Amino acid sequence: MKPTSTYKPTWYLGLIFVDSDQRSFQVVKTIFGDISRPMSYCIDLDNDWSIESEPGDHLQTAVGFRELNVEQPKLIIQQIEKMDLYERTGHLKKI
Questions:
Q1: What's the pTM?
Q2: Range list of β-strands (E), 1-95
Q3: How far apart, in whole angstroms, are the C-alpha atoms of residue 15 and residue 37?
Q4: How far apart are CA 87 and CA 14, in angstroms?
Q5: What is the pLDDT of residues 44-58, one digit of tens each?
Q6: H helices, E strands: number in the chain
């Protein structure tokens, strides 16, 4: 898999965005391939970010993010199609 050579994810690691309630979130996980199938590998980075993928070349299919400025942020996984829809409808805004 070489996602950076074939495709630049629009919801990339470190991206910060806000929702319509003005809560801030940061992308901490990128997922390439079918999220319903086991991933073949996961790269964990020192700052608690990670990249997961199925074997082969795949587009980014899902993203994991955490709310900023909360005591115990939960990891939220969402499909890219929904994230793009929320951005188009104004519910999310990339910073």
A1: 0.86
A2: 16-19, 24-32, 41-44, 50-53, 60-67, 76-79, 92-94
A3: 25
A4: 17
A5: 998 999 999 888 788
A6: 2, 7
